[in-house]
Each structure stands twice: as C-alpha cells, then as structure tokens.
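Fold this sequence, please.
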Amino acid sequence: MSQPREISDLTICRAFFAAWVFVYHVGLYLNAPAWLGPLAGLVRHGYMGVDGFFILSGLILMHSHPEFRAPKMHAPLPEFRFPPLAAVLRFYAKRLGRIYPVHLATLLILAGLAAAGLAAGLSPRAPQRFGLGALLENLLLVQGWGGDHFGAWNYPSWSISTEWAGYLLFPFFALLITYWPAIVAMQFAVITFPILGFLYFFFGHSLNLAFSLGLLRFFPEFIAGIAAWRMAAMVADSPSWRGLFLWGGLLLLLAGAVVLGDLGIVAGLWSLLFALYLRADTGLPPLFGRRPLLHFLGELSYCFYMSFAIAELVTVQLFRHLGWQPAQETLLFAAGMTALTFGLALLLRFLVEQPCRRAVNRWLSPAAAPDAPDAPAPSTPSLF
C-alpha cells in the first residue's frame, strides 16, 4: 500500500466540517431549520462538525507520525519501547506551533474589542465570559479540561483545548495501538461507540458536550480515528469494503440527521473518513477530484473556525446598536457573519498561521550542511 503524504479528500473534509459548524451557529440566530425543509436536520446537528475534526485528528496524526509506532519485529509482540524524549518534545512543539499562534491572536483581538467596547460605553451580552480566570485558562489551553467558564473568550477554542490534551497523550496512544495486532485496533474502534452511546443517552440524547464536558466527547472519537489508521491494512485493498464504508457512512450520516441523532452521525463520519483514507492508501485518485478552491478552504478551515465567534460578537453588537433583529434581517446577518469570518480567517492565515508555522519548522529543522542548498520543508497534513 502506498502512503501519500497529503490526502486531498481529507483536507477538503475539513472545509465541510468548519462550514457545518458555522452554518449551525448562524442558524441559531436566524431560526434557519424552520424553513429549510429536509435540510433542517443537517443544520440542527451542525455542531457535529467538531466530531469530524476529532476523528480526523487521530487518523491523520497516525498517518503522519510513524516515529511513534511500535517497531515491527518477528516476535508475536514487539518490544514495548517508548519513543525518545526528543521526538516527543519535537512533536509537542510542532503541534503547539500549529494551534497556539492563531489561538493567541484571537484572544488579543477579543481583548482589544472588549477594551474598545468599554471605552465606547458598550458591554458584551455576557460580561462574565471575559474574566481574568477564564483568560488564564485559555492562555494555558486548559479551558476545555473541566473548568466552569462556559463559553469564555473565544468559545470555539474549547475544542482546541481538548485537541491539545489529545496531542499530549498521542505518542502513548500511537505506541499502544501499533503494539497489539490490528484486530485489537478494531476492538478499540468498536468499543468507542458504546461509550459514545452511553454519553448520548446519559446527557439527554445529545453529544453536544462542550467546555467542561468536552474531553468526554473528544477522547472516544480521537481514539476511534487512531484505530481507523491501524485497521486500514486489514481492508484497504478490498473494493467491496471501501464501497461499504463509503456508502454506509453516507447513509448513517443522513439517517442520523433525520432519525438516528448524534450517535448515527458520528458513526457515519467515522465510516466516511475511514473510506476516504482507504481510497488514498491504495493510491486511488481523490474522490472529490482536484478542487483547488475546496482544498484552499480546507487549509483555511482552522482560521475560519477560530474566527466565527469574533465575527458573531461584532455582528450582533452592530445589530443591537442599529436596533435590528437577526431573525428579521436574515440575509444581511448571514452575509455580515460570512464576510467578517472569511476576512478575519484570511488575515489570520497569512499574517499569523503561515509565518508562525514556517518559523517553527525552521527552528525544529536539523541544521543544513554548509554547502547544501536549502530544501523546502515537507508539507504535513494539517488538522485543527
């Protein structure tokens, strides 16, 4: 099986996941599901786009970090040997360099907006969101680890905090999932769904667990993504299995939005992502084809996801100042939210994310030979 470095289909999926979350939050103001007909269920479950990111993170990290896999040996079980500390620290630094600059930039923007609003005599609808304790948790990236600051500061970043928790444990998870035979990975994947089912029923038939409960939602899906990579070797070369996971996943996703609820949707997301990975792993062309615009939107998805709450704050304050109601000015509100989110996302992408990633790559790259030309850094599949 081939191992493509960058998987176009999965990058494009990131664009769909971010758009799904965005449409859901815009719909909360516009009561959009009431007039969307058959699409209403998909919009109402738009928060499940985050679950797609969680599964995708585990899958792509396993794909792009072979240094944490257990060594292959002829014995029934390989030696259980932890990876070198230097490799682990390098991984942490690259992951932190990937997510933290944009996260910090959004906090600074919100702090500036809050200060400007106070100077102008304006106050946010929930001033408690901008407390110093919540700011400290955000700066430490632990706001999604059980704190009680509901929706504080840039509220979508609760999921970035849970991702960071997953990154910290990923080297151990990767070693564990590759130490055992592939059939054990399948059992890991199967077990995660009863766990999610318990959470689904225990929390009122919903997996929309965020902020203090975010880790409960994140880890089963993250581990299911890791297990999916390990399972790929078992079925990747079978066209019938690839088709089953692809069409079965699509059916589960649609049925979940209409009838089955969040549990059906997360099963569908896992199946679809697994099918797309199997397709890439066998060297088949991307299912979505070569779509430069969608690919760019996938690369922009992290900045877009981190920008919509700021755009929401500005748009809602403007509507309040003008005495308008979002539900009565639906097109104007949606257009304003979209334009502001895209504008801020592009600024963060080109002025913060890309320069910081290049700087981190230079810092972590081994020193080049004195007479050797500079080689471009390999492009790593990016996620949240």
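Residues 368-382 have pLDDT under 50 and may be disordered. Residues 85-119 form the longest helix (35 residues).
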